[in-house]
Amino acid sequence: MTSAYTTVLLPFVYLIIFIVGFPANVLAFWVLIRKNKMTSSTTFLISLTVADILLILMLPFKIAYHFSGNNWIFGEHMCRLVTASFYGNMYASILCLMCISIDRYIALVHPFASKVLRSQKIACYGCLVLWVAVIGSMIPFYMINQTHNITTMTITTCHDALPSNDQAFLFPYVITIFVVGFTLPSCVTLFCYGSVLRTLIRNKKKYLFAVKITALMLVMFIVCFAPSNIILVFHYSDKSGHEKKDYLYYIHTLSLSVSSFNSCLDPFIYYYVSDEFRSKVRSVLKYNKKSYNISNQATSSSSQPKSKGTIASALDTCR
């Protein structure tokens, strides 16, 4: 538990995620809230950015915890808050990504229905329900002690070594959030992006870039979130000896760091692939407006369709 993996490598990974992810997400949030026209897609992206920022803000506590030899010095209540916030914002990100996939599915596969279903009001209600559900689902983490004193190692762990009765209490809860917070959203996301890919592939030559981006989003979702959620179930259900428990602990912490990388990658995958977003970023950073305006006009005149309701216009709306 105090190996170089958990006390050097793991906090170093979290430090990279914090250094890269925090400014990228703050910049993304600033640009998104300054958009002239708020759409359903923008609303879901803002909600995703908030979840990513809140998760990243928990990383300094985990960095300090691991760098100090997995010794928690911030107290029991702070351990509960960090644990609940870390998992809560991870599942909030999953649900936001599911909502984004539904939004893009409706826009591309059912463009006529999108005029009714893709409203900002519906998106706001969806985000409200999402956050209420996530906050409520994290209550069990506040109901039990998350810190545990290991006298033989003179350290206090946070959420790493729970008593067997607490682990048994959390196991049904872990199964529930695995099904509701990961499995169902994953099935919805896979269906939506699968349908989007089929629609785009019909026009592969014209929308090859959009096909690649959609496929990348799908792969990123699976790689980032599937391992941590699957291993979390095994981690809490394991009744074997200490050697296997230690092995699962290392795999579990590694999978959580991979999940955290999603918060670092989201701004680049979901935001920075958009020409409009890049232009606004340049404006915020006070780049030469004249140069990018000329480039933007050239791109707009050559790539944007004149008529609405096409796949291209739907893609532009979803970005």
Structure overview:
The chain has a domain at 4-169 and 263-318: Rhopdopsin 7-helix transmembrane proteins, CATH 1.20.1070. The chain is 78% helix and 3% strand. The chain has helices at residues 4-33, 40-67, 76-109, 114-117, 120-137, 139-143, 164-201, 208-237, 242-271, 275-284, 289-303, 311-318; strands spanning 147-150, 155-158. α1 (4-33) runs antiparallel to α2 (40-67), α2 packs parallel to α5 and α3 runs parallel beside α7 (164-201).
Topology readout:
Blueprint: H1 4-33, H2 40-67, H3 76-109, H4 114-117, H5 120-137, H6 139-143, E1 147-150, E2 155-158, H7 164-201, H8 208-237, H9 242-271, H10 275-284, H11 289-303, H12 311-318
Antiparallel strand pairs: 1-2
Helix pairs in contact: 1-2, 1-9, 1-10, 2-3, 2-5, 2-9, 3-5, 3-7, 3-12, 7-8, 8-9, 10-11
